[in-house]
């Protein structure tokens, strides 16, 4: 940490989504209930009952306020809060809690915890899907009630207090997925790596993000910048408005430089002037890059590279890139599940898949089956706590454990298949057993649909993610078994290098430019080429300006990325011939270290874009 005389603090971070922003900082502290079994004296029951009633009243008021604020603009979301009020007032729950306090002498927080959790568990085990879905709502109301018991004010990111830089220890993917996009200027966190799902979402939304900032909370706390008092005007994302903030006295203001990886809290006058100029240059660079948006993705010598888009929802903005990309290389369906309070029904999923297929009008749409586990959880799906969740019951493994969930998704997918060109992609495949087992279930689902007389496309391709080294090393064998594959470099890197992609303590070991990674990708590319099967890269490296030429040089002709990387990738491709990219790839494979690869790629990039 670097503290100058006028209290300006600068901290280093990992710039996972490029950009520059300036504004006030909003510190986000999500509530995590931690209630232990606790009992009261018989004489204390009346006071305990009063405490319970006060917490219920406070929770009811919160729900009523959210409902009122939402009912005009979003009837559906408002309805959720009405339903939560009904749960809070449910007579059976209320009676049980009162008797747990009055008769079993449970401390009121513990009584609520137990009664709500038992009820949610009961509902979660029911046959009827609609009833099962209520379990998540029960847990949600329980958390609110427990928070009210502790007098902790409510906080979430779906409604920010004006335009702010959101700071947190860490953001769950669900926090980022529901973030108030109108008002978030940038994201800064203490935890989180470049390929955490929050980082990927931020990049997709075009929100500058700096993660892995050590000492962030301290710095903000000391400068008292972490207040929610944000009288900053709404349009700060525009250069001029950011300039206005940079003109202000620095107190409570921070600059996020997600190009060089620096956060400056309370910037001094020189820093503010410097960033005002810097911002102008960045905007000009962005303008040049944007010119490539609608261009054909051709290398300098005219070889066409297919550009795909990674999406996390079927929302209109997510599909905006359909006009200038060739296909969807990765639809991360788990976000459909995470945005909701309960398991999306077959019908809800069907509607979302149809929307994407139609938007791409006959061009391939690669839908990845549910990839939950690791850093992504579902509040309504009970999962055992695991010591190493990224090595645990994740993605396809979890789907095998929950066949009903897997089959519902496959049914929705096959029903939607008649509306476009669907490709189904299986995540976290470790061996041939996984592929054969998944194919068996897929076969069962197709038979079920046929028996019900439901039409499906006969041309649905089934492929896999290559993100576990074991399956990469079997590329010669699997290329014969699957219709296509896509390399998930985010996970392939973490599993190959044994470095958790989420753990800042080992961030320096998570080396996405490690030469071993490119040797392995090169092997997979050769085998898929020999088998004549399509291969794509849909991990973050597929949209990384430094690695795109290396991947093309290794033989890749399909790359899929977040919408915000498309222009830059097209621009980079247009500046290099395939022969030069092959030369670079060969040199990369011969490098000894991550840094050597990075320097080499930077050098090629400088020589290339320098010729603009
Ligand atoms: C990957 O692992 O590279 C990938 C694309 O999947 P995710 O980031 O969702 O794990
Ligand atoms: Mg992955």
How would you portray this structure in words?
- With about 600 residues, this protein is of the alpha/beta class.
- The chain folds into 3 domains: about 10-30 and about 160-290, Phosphohistidine domain (Glucose Oxidase, domain 1), CATH 3.50.30; about 40-150, Orthogonal Bundle (Enzyme I, Chain A, domain 2), CATH 1.10.274; about 305-610, TIM Barrel.
- The chain contains 23 helices and 17 strands.
- It has helices spanning about 45-70, 75-90, 90-100, 110-125, 130-150, 175, 195-205, 215-225, 240-245, 270-290, 335-340, 345-360, 395-400, 405-415, 430-450, 470-475, 475-480, 490-495, 515-530, 550-555, 565-575, 580-590, 595-610; strands spanning about 1-5, 10, 15, 20-30, 165-170, 185-190, 210, 255, 260-265, 305-310, 325-330, 365-370, 420-425, 460-465, 485, 535, 560.
- It has a 9-stranded mixed β-sheet with strand order 1-2-9-8-4-5-6-7-3, sandwiched between helices. Strands 16-15-14-13-12-11-10-17 form an 8-stranded parallel β-sheet.
- α12 runs parallel beside α14 (about 405-415).
- The longest helix has 27 residues, at about 45-70.
- It is globular, with a radius of gyration of 26 Å.
- Magnesium ion binds near residues 467, 490 and 491.
């Amino acid at each position: 940490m670097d503290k100058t005389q006028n209290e300006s603090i600068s901290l280093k971070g990992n710039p996972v989504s490029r950009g520059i922003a300036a504004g006030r900082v909003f510190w986000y502290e999500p509530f995590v209930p931690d209630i232990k079994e606790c009992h009261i004296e018989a004489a204390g029951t009346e006071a305990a009952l009063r405490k319970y009633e006060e917490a219920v009243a406070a929770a009811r008021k919160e729900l009523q306020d959210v409902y009122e604020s939402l009912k005009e603009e979003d009837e559906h979301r408002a309805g959720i809060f009405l339903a939560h009020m009904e749960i809070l007032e449910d007579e059976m729950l209320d009676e049980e809690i009162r008797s747990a306090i009055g008769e079993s002498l449970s401390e009121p927080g513990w009584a609520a915890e137990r009664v709500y959790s038992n009820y949610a568990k009961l509902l979660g085990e029911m046959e009827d899907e609609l009833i099962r879905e209520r379990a998540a709502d029960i847990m949600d109301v329980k958390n609110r009630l427990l928070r009210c018991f502790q007098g902790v004010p409510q906080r979430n990111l779906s409604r920010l207090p004006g335009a702010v830089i959101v700071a947190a220890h860490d953001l769950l993917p669900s926090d980022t997925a529901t973030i108030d996009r109108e008002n978030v200027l940038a994201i800064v966190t203490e935890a989180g790596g470049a390929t955490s799902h929050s980082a990927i979402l931020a990049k997709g939304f075009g929100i500058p993000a700096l993660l892995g900032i050590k000492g962030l909370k301290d710095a903000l706390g000391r400068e008292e910048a972490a207040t929610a008092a944000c009288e900053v005007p709404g349009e700060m994302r525009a250069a001029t408005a950011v300039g206005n903030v940079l003109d202000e006295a620095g107190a409570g203001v921070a600059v996020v430089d997600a190009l060089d990886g620096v956060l400056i809290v309370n910037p001094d006058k020189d820093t503010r002037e410097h960033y005002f100029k810097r911002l102008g240059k960045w905007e000009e660079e962005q303008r040049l890059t944007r010119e490539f948006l609608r261009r054909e993705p051709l290398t300098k010598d005219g070889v066409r590279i297919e550009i795909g888009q990674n999406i996390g929802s079927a929302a209109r903005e997510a599909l905006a890139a359909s006009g200038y990309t060739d296909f969807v290389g990765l639809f991360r369906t788990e976000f459909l599940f995470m945005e909701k309070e309960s398991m999306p029904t077959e019908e809800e999923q069907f509607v979302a898949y149809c929307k994407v297929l139609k938007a791409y009008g006959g061009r391939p749409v690669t839908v990845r089956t549910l990839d939950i586990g690791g850093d992504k959880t579902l509040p309504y799906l009970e999962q055992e706590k695991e010591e190493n969740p990224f090595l645990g019951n994740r993605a396809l493994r979890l789907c095998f454990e929950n066949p009903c969930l897997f089959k519902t998704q496959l049914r929705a997918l096959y029903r939607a298949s008649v509306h476009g060109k669907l490709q189904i992609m299986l995540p976290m495949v470790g061996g041939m057993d996984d592929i054969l087992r998944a194919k068996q279930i897929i076969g069962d689902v197709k038979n079920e649909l046929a028996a019900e007389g439901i039409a499906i496309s006969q041309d649905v391709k089934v492929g896999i993610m290559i993100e576990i080294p074991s399956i990469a090393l079997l590329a010669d064998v699997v290329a014969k078994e699957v219709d296509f594959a896509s390399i998930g470099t985010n996970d392939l890197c973490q599993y190959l290098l044994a470095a958790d992609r989420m753990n800042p303590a080992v961030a320096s070991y998570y080396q996405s430019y490690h030469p071993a990674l490119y040797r392995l990708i090169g092997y997979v590319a050769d085998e898929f080429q020999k088998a004549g099967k399509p291969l794509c890269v849909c991990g973050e490296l597929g949209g990384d300006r430094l690695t795109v030429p290396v991947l093309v040089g290794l033989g890749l002709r399909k790359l899929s990325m977040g919408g915000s990387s498309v222009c830059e990738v097209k621009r980079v491709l247009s500046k290099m011939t395939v022969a030069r990219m092959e030369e670079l790839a060969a040199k990369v494979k011969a490098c000894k270290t991550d840094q050597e690869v990075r320097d080499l790629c930077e050098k090629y990039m400088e020589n290339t874009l320098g010729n603009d």
